[in-house]
Amino acid sequence: MSASTTARRIAILATDGFEQAELEKPRDALRQAGFAPQILAPKAGTIQGFNHTDPADTFDVDGTIADAKPEDYDAVLLPGGVVNADALRTDKDAQAFVQAATGAGKPLAVICHGAWLLIDAGLVKGKTLTSWPSLQTDLRNAGATWVDEEVHEDNGWISSRKPDDIPAFNAALLKALGASGG
What's the half-sphere exposure (Cβ side, CA atoms, 13 Å) at 103? Predict the structure, then answer.
C-alpha cells in the first residue's frame, strides 16, 4: 500500500434504502486495498441499509453530496437498492456529481439499480452496461446497450447485476484503480 493509494478517496453515493452488501462489500475491499471510501448522501447523519426488502444496518454519512467536490475523489461507487436508486435518480446534486466525475474521466462503478442515477443524469447514451434485469428497458430507452453479464467494463465504467456479482465487481473496480485483490 503506497501513500498515493492511501490518499485516494472514493465517493460512495447512497441514501436510505441502499442494498447493504452492494455498499459494504465494495467499501471494505477498497479500504483493504488502502483507499479511503467516503459515503456521501443527500443529508448528513446516517443512512439505512437493506437486505433486499428487510431493514439492515445504518451507516454514518461522511459528507453530503451537495457539499462534496467531485474533483476531490478518484472514483465513484453507486450501490443499488430500489429505494436508494429511485431517490438518487432525481437528486440534482447527485446528477451533477456523476456528470462532473464522468466528464473528468474518473472510474465509475455501479451495481444493480444504481444505474437509474446515470440514466437521469443523461450519461448512458452510447454506453454498454449491465444492471438488475428490470432496468434493461430503461437503459435501452436511454440509448445504452444492456448486457447480462456478471461484470461489464466500458471505458472506465464498471457495472454488475446483483450482490452475487460483488467478487467480480470488486476485482474489476480495484483493477481500474490500479490495485490488486478483490
Answer: 10
